[in-house]
Amino acid sequence: MSIFPLITIAIDGYSSSGKSSMARQLAKTIGYRYIDSGAMYRAVALYAMEHNMINPEGTIDTRSLIAALPEIKIGFRIEDDRQITTLNDRDVESQIRSMAVSNHVSPIAAIPEVRHALVAMQQQMGEQKGIVMDGRDIGTTVFPDAEMKVFVNASPQTRAQRRVAELIEKGIATTYEEVLSNVINRDHIDETRAESPLRKADDALVLDNSTLTIDEQNSWLLERFHEICSNL
Ligand code: DC
Questions:
Q1: pLDDT in tens, 34-63
Q2: In testing the pocket of ligand 1, which one of 9, 14, 15 has its CB within 8 Å of the most ligand atoms?
Q3: Phi, psi of 104, deg, nearest 5
């Protein structure tokens, strides 16, 4: 239980901008619940891949996926201080981080019915407040009334370098070029999709963390949180 006032914190930004790490750390420090909404879109992409709803050319069988949405149960649990994403009660945390899922997730996240289903789940998760959620449309669509909104950015090159380091640490083989092209491609799909595209909410605080250390960005975020709470 948190000793702080319970507010809603929305952290949006580009892929691999470091928003998940900072959101997770903030939630831990202030005793809030953390939800990685990107993991939910990734879990739906994995489901579609496992059920042969994506052909080798990358075309999605949208109709079957929409019909299957009520069967897709996504959850989170904590294990050894690590957040695990579950898909129909199965631990899929490593699988959803693979390049294969990264390559398919943006078109899946552009399907309006997928977004409606996941946004409804996310809003339900945030009903009690005391939550930090990160994603692309949290401050604009999921929680437009969030008391604290942050939009995080860094250059595509910086983000690709971070992602390569992350993947290597997890033992996933990749190259900088492959990751950079995936980052640029995903930015484009996320920014240009018709349904809640990635954009900064008008009332979001902006953080460009290209030149900040992890400690610096965590301190920045915690200071903003205290400021907002003291003005409630
Ligand atoms: O943050 P991430 O890279 O794990 O997100 C995976 C994909 O899901 C990415 O292509 C954008 C999409 N996404 C989204 O459309 N809306 C969100 N709230 C979170 C992620």
A1: 999 999 999 999 999 999 999 988 999 999
A2: 15
A3: -105, -15
Dihedral angle, C-alpha 155, 156, 157, 162, nearest 10 °: 90
Tell which residue, 178, 147, 186, 169, has the closest CA to residue 17. 186
Question: Which numbered atom of ligand 1 lies nearest the CA of 122?
Answer: 18
Q: Which domain holds residue 131?
A: 8-224
Q: How many domains does the chain divide into?
A: 1
Ligand 1 in reach of 24 Cβ (< 6 A): no
Is the residue at 229 inside a domain?
no
Q: pTM (2 decimals)?
A: 0.92
The minimum-distance atom of ligand 1 relative to the CA of 110 is 15
Q: Looking at the domain assignment, is residue 40 inside a domain?
A: yes
* pLDDT per position as a tens digit, 202-211: 999 999 988 8
Give the nearest ligand 1 atom to 96 CA: 4
Give me the chain's average pLDDT, please.
93
Look at residue 92 and tell me if it is in a domain. Answer: yes
